[in-house]
Amino acid sequence: MTEFSTAGDAPAGKSVSQTADASGPAGDAGGATGPGRAERPARVAIMRMAEAGDAVMGRLIARYGPVGAMEQARRGVLDPGFARDEKDRAEASRRHLDLGRHAAAWAARYTDPSDDLAQGMRRGARLVVPGDVEWPTQLDDLGDARPFGLWVDGRANLRFSCLRSVSVVGARAATAYGTTVAAEFAMSLGGRGWTVISGGAYGIDGAAHRGALASGTPTVVVLACGTDVCYPSAHEDLFRAVRRQGVVISEWPPGAHPTRLRFLIRNRVIAALSRGTVVVQAAARSGALNTATHAWGLNRQLMAVPGPITTEVSTGCHVLIRQGKAVCVTSAEEIIELVGSIGDDLAPEQRGPVRPRDGLNDETRRVLEAIPARGATGPAAIAVAAGVDIGTALACLGALAAAGFVENVDRGWRLRPAARQ
Amino acid sequence: MTEFSTAGDAPAGKSVSQTADASGPAGDAGGATGPGRAERPARVAIMRMAEAGDAVMGRLIARYGPVGAMEQARRGVLDPGFARDEKDRAEASRRHLDLGRHAAAWAARYTDPSDDLAQGMRRGARLVVPGDVEWPTQLDDLGDARPFGLWVDGRANLRFSCLRSVSVVGARAATAYGTTVAAEFAMSLGGRGWTVISGGAYGIDGAAHRGALASGTPTVVVLACGTDVCYPSAHEDLFRAVRRQGVVISEWPPGAHPTRLRFLIRNRVIAALSRGTVVVQAAARSGALNTATHAWGLNRQLMAVPGPITTEVSTGCHVLIRQGKAVCVTSAEEIIELVGSIGDDLAPEQRGPVRPRDGLNDETRRVLEAIPARGATGPAAIAVAAGVDIGTALACLGALAAAGFVENVDRGWRLRPAARQ
Fold first, then answer.
1. How many CB pairs below 8 Å do chains A and B form together?
2. Residue B299: helix, strand or coil by DSSP?
3. Residues from B in contact with A at Cβ < 8 Å
4. Shortest Cα distance, chain A CAs vs residue B330, angstroms
5. Which CATH number fits domain A362-419: 3.40.50.80, 2.40.50.180, 1.10.1200.120, 1.10.10.10?
6. Do B306 and A309 touch (CB under 8 A)?
7. What number is the ipTM of this complex?
8. Which of A112, A169, A182, B2 has the fewest CB atoms inside 10 Å of its own CB, making it the most exposed?
9. For residues A272 and A249, is the Cβ–Cβ distance under 8 A?
10. A241-290, pLDDT tens digit by residue?
11. Which of B181, B322, B330 sits opposite A328 (nearest CB)?
12. Rounded Cα–Cα distance for residues B186 and A225 (Å)
């Protein structure tokens, strides 16, 4: 929390999730007004008991709600109807499933969620769960493998940041060519109001975040360990900078350490969060190709950067292009043309300096007009100037960000260059 | 002719075209037995009068035969029926055509073909025209723009060499990466019995020919000037080496100099001769993209090599890949998979060391068995050993080369490694 205390306004994301938490109904089912009070600790307990991406747990939650699922998992005893359906499902797909052992493992890992909640808060992270205003609903495309919740650490609002976002992924063992391209793409994407999403590894990941940071726009680091675990440790300064300007997120509880499997599980979130994934450099068996496979499976736009055929680290990119899975991209403009909204980002000649404000409703236009022509302002000040409550202001700002009028930066919200009329 | 006099056997191509010339009928129409006697000087005169690729002349020849077309062009007076059809055609395509002036220009450029014939022979070149055994019939795909004839200088047989061939083209201002890739591709293609076709320019063209020469297989240089004109002059040694192992060919008469337009006209022949064109490096407006457009228009396989997006000289390749016109290729194996015969070249596991000889007819099998297991032999010696005449031997050798059993090299014909049983 130390970093937040220096900010003039409370960070947007923080306010949103706290508001949702406080205003939600006491019931277990998440709704339009946010998940219930009991749901949050239940999800925290589940994040400790079940491995991220556990589809059996995903279905247990879908059927009994987070609190019901947590209770069954904690006891290690599942509802017979659910158990029967899971066995049928496993048999139909000829998959081995020892459900009793699976549930027993959940039960064995139960810890009081208040420990994780306290530790997460102490380390400066906030919990974002399905139903929260800050929840990125595109993760729902992951179906049964949707994250149970996310620990989010940083000033940016996760949901707003990801509305216009591109995942930039690639090899740890990138060449200077690869890291240069990743950084330049990220900087150009940022300059055009697009958020970069990537892992926290050396090579392409780090270069992409550094490029995004240089452009002054949010960047999202998706970790395969707790948000309080710095892996790799040499990226401590990088992650600190990301927390100031973007967010560091994780499906794993505070203190969790990364494993080889967790990197692969994590990759589905990188693919699902954005509108498209760009593979900058990847050898034939690179983990980045795993992210590419997720993006492809989720019907997200898949793109790859060509490189010299004489370096192995571009082989994976060329295979994706050759197979017709990835589109060959050579600039940020080409990426935006592929992931942008039709008519808005399609062709350079259609991107004029003036954006039509006519399509906005009264409230949203008032919020837009409350933002000064230069500099950034906090959401509370914007709400006062626009004469709306903070929740309405944040909702309008989110819509305006998605439409490309405003962006969420270090000290609040500001107009994007194109919206300054 | 100096180079041929040192060879033990008469060069295959030379023998073939001389045979065809001597055995052909005296009439004007080319047939299965080769073009008529009067046709060759007529085509030589036309090659002097009309610019290569002149489709009006192409249609005049198609209608009146080479001798009839030559006579009309020489007088500068065209048959009224033909003139009317050409005017209708021009009007239908809203194209300006001053046919009188066009024909007058032909007439003005007439010279006695015996001069060119004598000069071509003196410089060591042979004339190959449609109907000759050495004529590459795939050039017929060029329709009205088919070359009127070709001057061919070198030991390889043009038709046989081009049966399994790939055009490797690209920028003059290639980088070290581009020339390395071009040379390596050409060497691998040559090692697998594929002929390389390219222009004679600096950069990719020269590197491709050098790679092919290093593999010991024929390479075809398609010039935009007379075969006796060395352009660029620094390629004198390269062209000499090509004449020893492959062929240097041109649509233009001896002594003709290259122009910017001629390079573009020439490119259609590079595209039409081979089964596919690989663009190794090409800037956005490179002439290599002109060749690519021809290959695309002729339904030949179009391929492009990716490269660093940070060098402009790969931009054209990336555009072709991005547009879906060219397939991204990164190795000679991938090229052969795209241009090779189904089942023969498709997948690495299908390429075994033993080739079935069962499909060959008696004569062809006798010719194949007459070739020693090691080293190269001249066609005359092969004919004697197989008990067939030289014409039959050459026809069988061509078929065997096309099927990948044998290859035409410096000192005659030899078994390809895979055919050595």
1. 59
2. coil
3. 177, 180-181, 305-310, 314-315, 317-318, 321-322, 327-331, 334
4. 6
5. 1.10.10.10
6. yes
7. 0.72
8. B2
9. no
10. 999 999 999 999 999 999 999 999 999 999 999 999 999 999 998 899 99
11. B322
12. 49
